């Protein structure tokens, strides 16, 4: 089997302004690298158009209307202090959501075994009714709701290894027993949420807060608790909020992971996914702001996806 790589040129039109860390070059660095690697087992796909009612399951309609009305005719518009949109952001946000739908369909239809979505803007900070932290729509949350709604799955696991807590994903699924949300993240740090006390209504939230300076070995030891929770939950499908800003070179956080650690994280997760969900895994880009670290780490991540087909 193959691995899907879902991406679209529209990310280039999501302009966040000069000096913003969530910039166009992030996805360009990833895509150019995969083109250079030219792996025959990677199936490149563009995101398809999706039914916009999927957004309404995840975000409230007032918020969706607010976002739709916020894309400027020219220049930049601020949804919050960090989250900026431009005229081209409308298509980019839609394609970011569409990518995870396309990836899920591809796995379900046996086009490929697993998939990585190289898109922007990211999504895991976007709450039901609020944009924040560079995120507009919560891509991974829409994906989980799509699995429940379209494919009637009853057990979806979301593993978020971005260095920042995915407050938005937690907010959306806090009371949903069909979705297990697990996050490893630097704490205390932005966005301030993600303590061990936040467990969800059905014990369906597992937060693993870790201190600044966390080393590779300390992180991988902590990741065993992620795998243990997955083992208990026995998901039918795993979604990964794949942030690569836990890398030691990343300017926005203070973890000390190396590029090869993302291979190890992915490998351990995929080994477990084979036992419980026939290896059904879809991953989507969240953070990662050092271009070289991002290029290397995503290559490691996708290498593991390809190997564990």
Can you walk through the features of this model?
- It is a single chain.
- Helix content is 39%, strand content 15%.
- It is an alpha/beta fold.
- The chain has a single domain (3-307), classed as Arginase, Chain A (3-Layer(aba) Sandwich).
- An eight-stranded parallel sheet has the order 2-1-5-10-9-6-7-8, with helices on both faces.
- Strand 6, helix 6 (167-173) and strand 7 (179-186) form a beta-alpha-beta unit.
- The chain starts with a strand and ends with a helix.
Topology overview:
Blueprint: E1 3-6, H1 25-37, E2 42-45, H2 53-58, H3 61-68, E3 77-78, E4 84-85, H4 89-108, E5 114-117, H5 139-151, E6 156-160, H6 167-173, E7 179-186, E8 205-210, H7 216-233, E9 237-242, H8 259-276, E10 281-285, H9 291-307
Parallel strand pairs: 1-2, 1-5, 5-10, 6-7, 6-9, 7-8, 9-10
Antiparallel strand pairs: 3-4
Helix pairs in contact: 1-9, 4-5, 7-8, 8-9
Structure summary:
With 309 residues, the chain is an alpha/beta fold. The protein has a single domain (3-307), classed as Arginase, Chain A. It is built from nine helices and ten strands.
Please give a handful of descriptors for the protein shown:
15% strand, alpha/beta, 309 residues
Number of helices: 9
- Can you write the helix and strand succession as a string? EHEHHEEHEHEHEEHEHEH
Mean of pLDDT: 98
- Which CATH class is shown? Alpha Beta
Total strands: the figure is 10
Backbone shape: globular
In the CATH hierarchy, what is the architecture at level 2?
3-Layer(aba) Sandwich
Instruction: Catalogue the unreliable spans.
Output: none
């Amino acid at each position: 089997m193959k691995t899907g790589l879902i991406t679209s040129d529209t990310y280039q039109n999501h302009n966040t302004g000069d000096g913003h860390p969530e910039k166009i070059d992030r996805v360009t660095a990833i895509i150019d690298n995969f083109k250079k690697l030219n792996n025959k087992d990677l199936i490149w796909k563009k995101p398809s158009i999706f039914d916009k009612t999927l957004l309404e399951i995840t975000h409230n309609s007032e918020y969706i209307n607010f976002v739709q009305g916020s894309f400027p005719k020219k220049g930049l518009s601020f949804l919050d202090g960090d989250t900026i949109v431009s005229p081209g952001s409308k298509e980019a946000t839609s394609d970011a959501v569409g990518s995870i739908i396309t990836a899920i369909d591809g796995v379900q239809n046996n086009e490929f075994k697993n998939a990585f979505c190289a898109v922007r803007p990211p999504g895991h900070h976007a709450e039901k009714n609020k944009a924040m932290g560079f995120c507009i729509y919560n891509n991974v949350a829409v994906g989980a709701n799509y699995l429940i709604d379209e494919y009637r799955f009853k057990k979806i696991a979301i593993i978020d290894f971005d260095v920042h807590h995915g407050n938005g994903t937690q907010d959306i699924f806090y009371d949903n027993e069909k979705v297990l949300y697990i996050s490893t993240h630097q704490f205390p740090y932005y966005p301030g949420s993600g303590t061990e006390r936040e467990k969800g209504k059905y014990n369906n939230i597992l937060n693993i807060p870790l201190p600044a300076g966390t080393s590779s070995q300390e992180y991988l030891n902590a990741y065993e608790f992620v795998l243990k929770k997955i083992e208990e939950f026995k998901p039918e499908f795993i979604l990964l909020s794949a942030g690569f800003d836990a890398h030691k070179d990343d300017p926005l956080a203070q973890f000390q992971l190396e590029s090869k650690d993302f291979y190890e994280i992915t490998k351990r997760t995929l080994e477990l996914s084979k036992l419980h969900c026939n290896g059904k895994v879809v991953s989507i880009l969240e953070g990662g702001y050092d271009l070289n670290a991002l290029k290397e780490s995503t290559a490691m991540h996708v290498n593991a996806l390809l190997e564990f087909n």
